[in-house]
């Protein structure tokens, strides 16, 4: 088992999370290939990253050299390829992730590690059908990846302890605070966060308060962000999929029931920041 120190990384999924993971890995010195199933998406993610890094340079938070060095390490690719470590950040769907892992296993060397950034899907279930289930581990980053320190390293029933430890240490070298956890529905953060979002959505459904007021109240109570703006940041499509997954995994326990308010937002395509509109509108 390698230490993953100088690993060549393939990030699959160039959306909100994949782009952030690619940035953090590149800033830590790795060569990163970035792939997305949507043609042109990886290229577009790199251009966005480039503007964002330019912004940091302008603000004096990063040197122009460091920004350029990180950027050249990221290569958008139009097909899956080999790597020492794959970090998967595609849509929150069990069957689609499983199909990807089957495809990857045909391309990867036997000692390569596959890390999934799933927010909620059982790592044990995701590994089912893999030739080497021991190489799959959860590496759950938080949004926005460059700013959020926490990484949950999630072990499924078949995950090798060496693989979990290697990913744990890698996250530490990237400046993250890694924690080990077993694969249970929602892991730690999303298990606790589901009822928090659910109560917010109930308040909205009951017309008790508008999103602006709820956010202001929770900020005043000491939270960095209110729950409505946070759900807009996460993306309602992803958040709704996570709720469904945790609800099913808890044998449809009423506490985790998905909300009609969120269903409406998803049906309308109001995914939050990434689509320009959620609870709030974004330019
Ligand atoms: P996103 O919608 O922003 O991006 C997902 C990307 O994956 C899209 O660009 C899509 O084209 C691509 N994709 C879909 N299927 C693919 C496939 N088969 N192969 C390659 N690319 C494919 O979503 P996101 O918010 O970046 O979430 C990605 C993953 O990260 C999900 O599993 C989600 O649960 C998890 N996650 C999200 C957050 C968050 O706050 N949004 C936080 C932690 C973890």
TrEMBL record:
One annotated GO molecular function: 3-hydroxybutyryl-CoA dehydrogenase activity
The 3-hydroxyacyl-CoA dehydrogenase NAD binding domain, residue ranges: 9-182
Keyword Oxidoreductase applies: yes
UniProt entry keywords in alphabetical sequence: Oxidoreductase
Root EC class: oxidoreductase
EC number: 1.1.1.157
Coiled coil feature spans: none
Tree of life domain: Bacteria
Domain named 3-hydroxyacyl-CoA dehydrogenase C-terminal: residues: 186-282
Name under which the protein is recorded: 3-hydroxybutyryl-CoA dehydrogenase
Organism: Roseateles saccharophilus (Pseudomonas saccharophila)
Lineage, broadest ranks: Bacteria, Pseudomonadati, Pseudomonadota, Betaproteobacteria, Burkholderiales
Portion of the parent chain present: 1 to 283 of 471
